[in-house]
Amino acid sequence: MSAREPVLVPFGPAPEERVQLVQPGARRSYPPEVRERLERDAATVVARYPRPRSAIIPLLHLLQAEDGYLTPAAVDFVSHTLDLTGAEVAAVATFYSMYRREPTGDYLVGVCTNTLCAVMGGDAIHAALTEHLADDPGSVTLEHLECNAACDYAPVVMVNWEFFDNQTPESARTLVDDLRSGHPVTPTRGATLCTFRETSRILAGFPDPRPGANDAATAGDATLAGLRRAHEAGSAAPDPSSTRGSTTAAPDVPTDSTPDEPAPAPSADVPGKEAR
Q1: Do residues 37 and 115 make contact, with C-beta atoms less than 8 angstroms apart?
Q2: Of 124, 131, 152, 153, which is most buried, counting CB atoms within 10 Å of its CB?
Q3: What pTM, to 2 d.p., does this model score?
């Protein structure tokens, strides 16, 4: 490539990414009985917030629970409920990856292919499931996921936002086979899985009826490995009271200054600091 040849960097969604809220067959409105039910649930959600517009995120989860994804009817419902424009609602609906913009199966299977999971086999898992689910009638929806904040258990697969740790192509295929056959499936942490629509309703703030769903989970061995090693080495965090709220003061700045006696500016001979 010539040093003067321009490099074109494309912006916007990838060509294969479906970003439109308007899908063939998507609802444009709700039947009266459905709308009445949604209005009752929406009133419960909105009442939790001092400002109605603050309820937009849980309301979108509520509407996603209705159809399994967000439709023009959902955007219209939320905009009228919260007195927002359709553009304001759509901006939130298209920003967060937890909101689906196309029909989704009972189980949304996400394979993390970010750096650590990819190195540990995430790409191989995604490729194996892509092939394995090629003839799936729609009960399982597969997607790439970015970091799921469970790097200590890589590679990680999530189903309806529940973790399945230390996966392999073989275990992932077994997992989706169990999902498709209707067998109860329990994640590494949490209660037995419910459907994607049921999960969306729970995320809207309604009770989770599954036994054990609200039990406190303990950190796993891999998560605690660093803390355990620190204890073995005799390391400990500094006493917060000894820092008086600041751990970044330069050596020549007194740490016992009061509001009536401002601390002097850092000296210019302190590396990385400039006198002001």
Answers
A1: no
A2: 153
A3: 0.75
Q: Which residue, 222, 225, 243, 241, is CA-closest to 233?
A: 225
Q: Give the residue from 164, 171, 166 showing the smallest Cα distance to 190.
A: 164
What token pair was written down for 68? 């399994």
Of 83-97, 126-140, 223-237, 246-260, the range with the lowest mean pLDDT is 246-260
Looking at residue 80, its amino acid is H
Round the CA-based radius of gyration of the chain to a whole number and report it: 25
Query: Are the C-beta atoms of residues 90 and 77 closer than 8 Å to each other?
Result: no
Contact status, residue 210 vs residue 191, Cβ threshold 8 Å:
yes
Q: Report the DSSP beta bridge partners of residue 109.
A: 142, 159
Looking at per-residue pLDDT, the higher value among 253 and 75 belongs to 75
Q: How far is CA 245 from the centre of its chain?
A: 32
Residue 138 is predicted with a pLDDT of 84
Ramachandran class of 32: left when φ > 0, alpha when ψ lies in -120 to 50, beta otherwise: alpha
Report which DSSP code applies to 202. H
| 125 vs 143: CA distance, rounded Å | 11
For residue 243, which phi and psi values (nearest 5 degrees)? -100, -10
How many angstroms separate the Cα of 258 from the Cα of each of 86, 249, 261, 263? 51, 14, 5, 8
